[in-house]
Amino acid sequence: MYVSSLKLQDFRNIREASLEFSPGINIFYGENAQGKTNVLESIYLAGTTKSHRTSRDREMIRIGEEESHIRMEVVRRAGSFRIDMHLKKNRPKGVAVGGVPLRRAAELFQLVHLVFFSPEDLGIIKNGPGERRKFLDILLSSIDPIYLKDFSLYQRCLTQRNHLLHDLFARPELLPSLDVWDAQLTEIGARIIEKRQTFAAELETAAASIHEKITGGAEKLTVTYEPNTAAETFAEKLRAGRNLDLRMKTTGAGPHRDDFKVSANGLDLRLFGSQGQQRTAALSLKLSQIGLLEEKTGERPILLLDDVLSELDRGRQTFLLDSLDHTQTFITCTGLDEFVEKNFSLDRVFRVDDGKVSAVSHPQLG
Ligand SMILES: Nc1ncnc2c1ncn2[C@@H]1O[C@H](COP(=O)(O)OP(=O)(O)OP(=O)(O)O)[C@@H](O)[C@H]1O
Ligand SMILES: [Mg+2]
Most Cβ neighbours (<10 Å): which of 123, 304, 347, 351? Predict the structure, then answer.
C-alpha cells in the first residue's frame, strides 16, 4: 500500500503543504529544526491516530492556531481512500474515512499499515512495559480484527471498573456491579492474554531470524511474553486483589500490566544491553513488523525512516536499505550526498525549509 498525497494545515511548524508522493522512495531533506520529522509525524498520526512523540494533540497544532487538519490519500489493492483528521485544542480529534466519521479511531489500524523507524525506537527495549505493550498491541490490532475489538472492549471495561472503584467509596450499595465488570474483564482479558501468548512466539521467530543475520550469527534474540496473570487464573487473581483495588481505586491485575522481555543470548537487554545492542534489537523487532504485516495482510506496509540511517553502522544501514524493495518509504535526512554516492534511486525529493515543504528536481537524480 502507499500514500499518494498529503495535505497539511497548521500542523506543528507547517502552515500549509500539499504534497504528491511516489509509491517508491520519498526523501525529505533540510537543515535541523525545519520540519522534516513533523511531516513524518503527520503521516503516522493520520494512519494510526498516534504520534510517536506526544499523546497531546494540542502540542501538534501550530502555535497560535486553534485547529489543525491533515488529509491523506492512501492506495491499497482494493482501492484508494481518503483520511481526514482534525485536531482540536480542547476536544478529542475527529477522524473520517472517505468523508464518513469513524466511531473508533483505532479502526484505522486495520486500514493503514505503517512502520516507523525513529531514534525513539530504543524506548521499546529501554523503557517501561507500556511501550512494549503499545508495540505489540498496534501490530496485533493491525492484523487481527477480533483482537482490535477485544482490546478496545477491554480498555472500556477497565475504565468503567476503575470508575466504579472510585464511586464505591461513597456508594457501597453499588458493590454487586463490581461482579459484573469482573466477569466481563476476565472473559475478554483471557482472550487477549491467549492471543498475545501465541503472537509473541511468532514475533520471536521473525525477529530472531533477522537479528541473527544483522549480528552475523553472534546474537540469539528471544522474546518472552510475561503476562501479569495467566488466562485461567485471571478471575481468581482479580478476586484476591479486590480489597487492595478498592483501597487503591484502580485495577491491579490483568493484561494491562503485561510485559514482554527481549533478550540476546539469554541476557535481558532492557537491563544489561549496550546502547548498540538495544538499538539493533529494536531494529530487528521493527523489521520483523514489516514481514509479519505483509505475511498476514498480503500487502507491504509503508515505512517511515526518521534520522535512523545516521545512527546505524554501515552493515545495519545496508541491511535496512536492502529491505526497501517494493515498499513505499519516507526518509528524512540533512543531505543527499550519501544517497547519490550509493546510486540510490530517489523517486521524489522534497526540501524542507522553515516549515515550507517543496518538491525539487535534482539534476543528479535523473
Ligand atoms: N506546535 C508547533 N507549532 C509551531 N512550531 C512547532 C510546533 N511544534 C514543533 N514546532 C517546531 O518545528 C520545528 C521543526 O521540527 P522537526 O522536529 O520537524 O525538525 P527536523 O527538520 O526534523 O529537524 P532535525 O533535523 O533536527 O531532526 C522545531 O523547530 C519546532 O520548534
Ligand atoms: Mg527530525
Answer: 304
Per-residue pLDDT of the chain (366 residues; tens, 9 = 90+): 999 999 999 999 999 999 999 999 999 999 999 999 999 999 999 999 988 888 899 999 999 999 999 999 999 999 999 999 999 999 999 999 999 999 888 889 889 999 999 988 889 999 999 999 999 999 999 999 999 999 999 999 999 999 999 999 899 999 999 999 999 999 999 999 999 999 999 999 999 999 999 999 999 999 999 999 999 999 999 999 999 999 999 999 999 999 999 999 999 999 999 998 999 999 999 999 999 999 999 999 999 999 888 778 888 888 888 888 889 999 999 988 877 777 777 899 999 999 999 999 864 554
Rg of the chain taking only CA atoms, in angstroms = 22
CB of 12 within 6 A of ligand 1: the answer is yes
Could you confirm whether domain 1-113+300-366 is CATH 3.10.20.310?
Answer: no
CA of 119 from ligand 1 middle (Å) equals 15
Beta carbons of 24 and 345 less than 8 angstroms apart: yes
Pocket test for ligand 1, best of 36, 56, 357 (most atoms within 8 A of CB): 36
Question: If you measure from the C-alpha of residue 332 to the centroid of ligand 2, how many angstroms do you get, rounded to a whole number?
Answer: 7
Three-class SS of residue 78? coil
**Which position has the grid cell 518472552?**
224
Measure CA 172 to chain center. 41
Query: Which of 116, 42, 134 lies closest to 357 in space, CA to CA?
Result: 42
The domain spans of the chain are 1-113+300-366
C-alpha cell at position 60? 501538534
